[in-house]
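Objective 1b: paired records.
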Amino acid sequence: MAMVRLKMIVSYDGSAYCGWQRQRDPIPTVQSMLEKATGEIVNHPVTVLGSSRTDTGVHARGQVAQMTVDTHLDPRRLRMAINSRLPSDIVIHRIEEAEPDFDIRQARSKRYRYVVWNQRDRSVFYRHYVYHFWHTVDLARMQEACGRFVGRHDFAAFQGAGGDRDTTEREIFHCGIHQRGPIIIFAVEGSGFLYHMVRTMVGTVLEIGRNQGDPAEIDHILASKNRALAGPCAPASGLCLEWIRF
């Protein structure tokens, strides 16, 4: 049988995992779970590459991954077989044969969503998927702050310690925030993101929303390239990778 390169769309609840990227055993990661389940089906070691290395506790609706396998199963049957071996918090939505020139590293844009529970009492049922931020906030100020991220900037001030990217410049195509009852939703689409970048953007916008700074300070923080001037890194639980486009 010939080796075939496959593209997958994967969703997962990241609460129980130390991020996407494989680590030493027995540390649980999404990549290692997918590789184990697939290897059991195709009877050979498999490497699953993801387009986005989500952090510990971060979720995904539309992670894109690729792998090369030797199997007689068509993509539909292979998907069903792998899903039967995966835990309930990971599911493959689609598997298809990839184009010969498909490269998981060449994403054009990615969209993340961050959800905040903005009420005095914490949420019992959404606790794994939101950040409980009970302070009173000014939505208009936060919307203005979000707009200042749009464009190509150096996001060094919003990168967490340990980031290893060659350049800290990124282009943001859209960044907005809105509120529905106690739920505040921050959404950002960009060419790519640095380590902890989205969560630090959220932490900074929330501080501005509670009158701990002016929206115009976003420009100063970006220009400074100084992490100490940005806000706190919001918890992982509220963050979800929505989709990736190539």
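Objective 1b, second protein:
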Amino acid sequence: MLRTLLVVLIAFIATPAISISSEQDALNAAKTLVEQGHPDKAIKQLDHFLASNPDHAEARFLKGLILVNQDRLEAAIKIFEALTKDYPELPEPYNNLAVSYSALGRFDDARKALQSAITTHPSYATAHENLGNIYAMMAADAYNHALSLDKENAAARDKLALMSELFSVGTINNASHQPTAAASAPAAKTQPAPTAAPAAAKAAAPVVEEEDAELAMLMEDESDGTEGAASEFEQGILSAARQWAQAWSNKDIEGYLSHYHPKFKPSRGLSRTAWVQQRKQRIAKPRFIEIEVLDPEITAISEDEARIEFLQTYRSNTYSDESRKYLRMKRDGEGWKIVREVSLQ
């Protein structure tokens, strides 16, 4: 009954070892092998890819999903645990870690993982639903234990029957093109995969200083006019994101780079200098670039730090895609700057 994200997770903008197209070709080949019923071959494909790209989060996530669906849960847990350490601000690895824990009956570990997912992303509905399911499973386990101690306990028997009925209805069928959840997992549900290019359900790019706590929203106090302040707060972030996108569209490299905070850290150990050189090459190469920022959602972290998620459309003469983009932004004397950039597809 736990919902697992059976869509690919994280694809980085900065890809030092290979191009975007060849990277996606390698991942698509692995997905095709899974769809054709050859998960072992898919894992070999991913292992070959990871040999030269050991920190590639999307490939690691996909391998973890395949392992879950092979009922190789301990191996999957190692992958998802590592992803939660590398990307503590993303909720999806925590969610799939919880699914793996629950399939092994480790309900308390699953509960903790889901609570971490909710802490990082308070509006992540899948984690809230799964947490409710975990509590129900823990209750069923307790009722079953009560019956083992007292077979005449009618109240425990009735409640256990209710839990059994709950777990037998209301599940969402897996999409036919996606792998099903592990046989031992409780009726896992999938979330529909988007049709975007180099990533999936929730995805990624560069790196920042790590901050664990996030606020669900700005604290509102009608008596001191906080609603107006919150609106101004959000408008400042959205304006900065759109200016960043416009500079990218204009192929204004220096303007584009000026939107990144001095504390912005590229992913996978890439130096700031190497990242800048890579971005310059990728922006200069196409004849034209068009970037749009659509459907923005803003969440405050503190008075001077926030995250914005939006649908990003990218089009050039050589490549096009759309993805959910996550920018973590920090305000300094020059306005809002990007400290982390993640493509969520």
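The longest helix spans residues 125-149. The mean pLDDT is 73.
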